[in-house]
Design a protein that fits this description.
Strand content: 35-45%
Number of helices: 16
Distance between the termini: 21 Å
Structural class: alpha+beta
Helix content: 10-25%
Shape: elongated
Length: 836
């Protein structure tokens, strides 16, 4: 969404904030348990997305290095590993050595918590003993089941909420506080944009929001729960950072920003027309209501402004940097009045390109009229006048250069950085700053600037990044937006697509491509089969290692195994009459292949229950089920040998808590959910009209769709729930633990985000999870176009690309820039690199 739209939404939120009264809540909300001692509250709208953005944003690396003691970053590193499935609140309380924190979310957003074991709070490395609250304790490893850390956290439950903390005192305060005690915070929450991955809330008296987030600087306190709170939405692109929000400013606060209280917004382009295109920074301020400015100035300075005539004649003030000089630009509604106000200080010089030029004997009238905004600026000694514009600077050459650029229409607005940034900015502001050299300081870090940033933040920015900020001011609150973007690519995606290689096969592609680990190089290879049953293995750069003719087409996919547990991988798959295992060079691995003459084997499923490489290779021949171990022996303890009906696709292994579930879809409409030995683990009554998609473990429920368009979920008790999604019979669907993707005609959906594509014939979506980033791919097989989306349904830059089948995706060369392999023009394969 463009910034102008976001500013409008924020303004609408403030109407709600100022006009509504807090409603009585029937159920306890996470906001009800926020303690009065909270220094920062972070509302994480989408934990998976925020975790991905936080870990992969390139700017975060610089800010980590600049502030290694950032308490908030340390809290986020720890809390995000708990991975709740939905919206959560992270409450942070300052402490002398490290921050205390509390994560709160509804129980139904973390169903796996129900199966977590409780351990006694008597371990040597327990949570902070800062009170004696009686709570249960769960280890960090138990809470997330992915953490190697052995330290403990405390867990408590209250009215449908789960609370996890590293502090007994903080947890006790949240567990016992009176609901709805902090209406100001609840009202601030109404202004948050749920489309952002997270929103930052800071109490009255807080530090700069960039210092709070990027430096972990805490200040302000919510006190008795009645204090005002400010809200800032956080959006972290791959190469950009946006902080946008509402800062409440009561009448008691009078600082330089209060100079602009109640002043109208004005178009950015007006003052930018005077700045040359090669200016490296621009700072502009609206003076559209001089009477308001004079009143504000009087309150701040403790005296009335003594140059009202000059002030009343200027609508817009701008400061910009050019070739190391700082110059001042004024846009006047009455140029003659400006000249008359400055006449005693002016000495007229020869005109330059039809513009009047003056020497300015004394800059006191200028400084006084706009005090205190121009303090610290080099005193202007020369002034030029072109139409309604005035430009003032320390050297005659600098003023002449500005006039020359203006006359040839080479302006900052048309040809400079502002033009490239226009799509990402609100078109009007009370105050605005843009600089390509934020590390150079000046009005970027000057404490007198109304849009300055902490010097430590400016210094941490790497070269090639620019800084922008916008302020829309009202009587009681400010709308603020801060942005860091790459100068050359302000989109912030940091992404581009390039072709790594295309390779033509001797026949048409029938299976693959499949990306496989190469234990010799540490990278990935690409395997593909053609309609002559030839299996090809290519390197990450497209070199052909070998091709081998198989006895039949590969059924389903290729699985990788490490049968000898020595780090050397083999590839396992079925063809119609054999179970095949090949080594890295394409040679059979004894005792494979296993022949089944006259059979019609289905796709292979590979189970590794404990992750210890004790494999189970499962497949079918009609209704008959086979299970072999990694040594090619029949697993005699497995009892499910005759399904009574052929399975649809390979079976699936899923785990919930400590229990394993083997899931078989059958052609007669039955769904069998078994344990490891093949006995029924969950009895599922009735039959289903299965769609052409699989069964997935989504939010701890067995999830699939029917041709009727229903989404079916089954819990561990066998309870069936159907939700009508109005899907066509040939829809596509895939799910992971917390992500559901759908393709219905030309309508794509991932989670709750949607995108409408061109009309076509689309494959089911495929979800990939690489470096904490969710990608979803679909292919229009009619138009031969591959689309790649983020988890918010936004398209990756550079897509669609040419392709005609289901893609596979991995980081083939270990550079953290993933590659996508896909069938290409029937008889070729292509690999594309996504530069993040």
């Amino acid at each position: 969404m463009k910034s102008a739209c976001c500013f409008a939404l924020l303004a609408f939120g403030l109407i709600v904030l100022e006009s509504c009264r807090t409603a009585d809540a029937d159920e306890l909300s996470p906001w009800d348990v926020v303690p009065d001692s909270a220094a920062i509250v972070l509302q994480i709208h989408d934990p998976g997305r925020f975790r991905s953005e936080f870990r992969n944003n390139k700017l975060m690396e610089n800010f980590r290095a600049a502030a290694p003691g950032n308490k908030l970053f340390r809290v986020l590193d720890e809390a995000l590993m708990l991975d709740p499935a939905g919206e959560s609140l992270l409450i942070v309380q300052d402490a002398p050595e490290d921050a205390n924190w509390l994560l709160v979310f509804p129980e139904n957003r973390y169903p796996a918590m129900d199966s977590l074991p409780e351990v006694r709070d008597d371990s040597p490395a327990g949570p902070r003993a800062d009170s004696v609250a009686a709570t249960s304790s769960i280890s960090l490893q138990a809470a997330a089941r992915v953490l190697p850390d052995s330290s403990n956290l405390l867990e408590s439950r209250r009215s449908g909420l789960i609370l996890i903390s590293n502090s007994r005192r903080l947890l006790q305060e949240a567990s016992t506080r009176e609901p709805l005690k902090n209406p100001a915070l609840r009202q601030a929450a109404k202004t948050a944009n749920s489309g952002a991955s997270a929103s930052l809330f800071l109490p009255l008296g807080h530090t700069h929001p960039l210092a709070a987030f990027l430096l972990g600087s805490f200040s302000g306190n919510s006190g008795d729960g009645t204090a005002f709170w400010s809200a800032f939405d956080l959006q972290l692109r791959s190469d950009a950072l946006l902080v946008q929000g509402v800062e409440v400013r009561p009448d008691s606060i009078w600082d330089n920003r209060s100079l602009l209280r109640g002043l109208p917004v004005l178009p950015l382009g007006e003052i930018a027309r005077m700045a040359p295109s090669n200016a490296t920074g621009l700072y502009s301020i609206s003076l559209g209501e001089p009477e308001e400015f004079l009143n504000n100035q009087s309150r701040i300075l403790g005296r009335p402004g003594n140059r009202p005539v000059l002030l009343e004649s200027v609508e817009h003030l701008g400061v910009f940097t050019l070739s190391g000089e700082t110059l001042l630009a004024l846009l006047s509604v009455n140029p003659q009045a400006v000249l008359e106000a400055l006449r005693p200080q002016l000495t007229e010089l020869p005109a330059f390109q039809d513009a009047a030029i003056y020497r300015l004997q004394e800059d006191e009238p200028i400084q006084s009229a706009f005090a205190p905004m121009l303090q610290g600026m080099d005193p202007p000694a020369y002034m030029g006048n072109v139409g309604n514009y005035f430009v003032l600077g320390p050297t005659l050459e600098g003023v002449q250069n500005v006039i020359s650029a203006y006359n040839r229409e080479d302006s900052f607005a048309a040809n400079g950085t502002l033009g490239r940034m226009a799509p990402y900015l609100a078109s009007e502001s009370t105050a605005f700053v843009l600089t390509e050299e934020p590390r150079a300081g000046g009005f970027t870090t000057d404490s007198l600037s109304v849009l300055s940033i902490p010097e430590q933040v400016a210094r941490a920015l790497p070269p090639g990044y620019l800084y922008t900020a916008q302020l829309n001011s009202s009587e009681s609150y400010d709308l603020l937006e801060y942005q860091f973007r790459k100068t050359e690519d302000p989109s912030g995606s940091g992404a581009s697509v390039s072709t790594v290689f295309t390779r033509k096969l001797e026949g048409q592609v029938t299976a693959g491509p499949f990306m496989l680990r190469n234990h010799r190089t540490g990278g990935m290879d690409l395997a593909v089969q053609d309609d002559r049953n030839q299996l090809y293995l290519f390197s990450a750069t497209g070199d052909l290692y070998w091709k081998k003719t198989l006895a039949g087409p590969i059924q389903g996919g290729i699985h990788q195994v490490d049968l000898f547990k020595n780090g050397r991988y083999q590839m396992a798959f079925t063809i119609p009459e054999a179970l095949v295992v090949l080594d890295r060079d394409g040679n059979p691995v004894s005792p494979f292949p296993k022949q089944f003459d006259g059979a019609s084997l289905g796709p292979l499923a590979l189970f590794d229950y404990e992750g210890n490489r004790n494999y189970r290779l499962v497949f079918n021949d009609g209704p008959k089920i086979y299970m072999f171990d990694g040594q090619g022996r029949d697993v005699r303890g497995f009892k499910y040998r005759d399904a009574g009906s052929p399975p649809i696709g390979p079976p699936d292994h899923m785990r919930i808590g400590s229990r394993d579930y083997l899931v078989f879809r059958l052609e007669d409409g039955r769904l069998r959910i078994l344990n490891r030995v093949g006995n029924t683990r969950i009895r599922v009554d009735g039959s289903f009209d299965f769609s052409g998609n699989g069964v997935y473990l989504y939010r701890d429920k067995f999830t699939f769709t029917e041709k009727s368009g229903h989404l079916v979920t089954i819990d561990t008790q066998g309870k069936i729930n159907r939700t009508a999604l109005n899907l066509n019979a040939d829809h596509g669907m895939q799910a992971t633990a917390n992500t559901l993707a759908l393709m219905n005609d030309n309508l794509f959906q991932v989670k709750t985000s949607r995108a409408e594509l061109d009309l076509g014939v689309y494959t089911p979506p495929r979800i990939f999870y690489l470096y904490d980033i969710i990608y979803v791919a679909v292919t229009d097989i009619q138009g031969q176009q591959v689309y790649l989306f983020r988890s918010d349904a936004s398209s990756m830059p550079g897509f669609p690309v040419e392709g005609s089948g289901l893609p596979d995706m991995a980081d083939m060369d270990g550079d953290r820039n993933p590659e996508l392999g896909v069938k290409y023009r029937d008889s070729s394969v292509a690999v594309y690199r996504i530069q993040r």
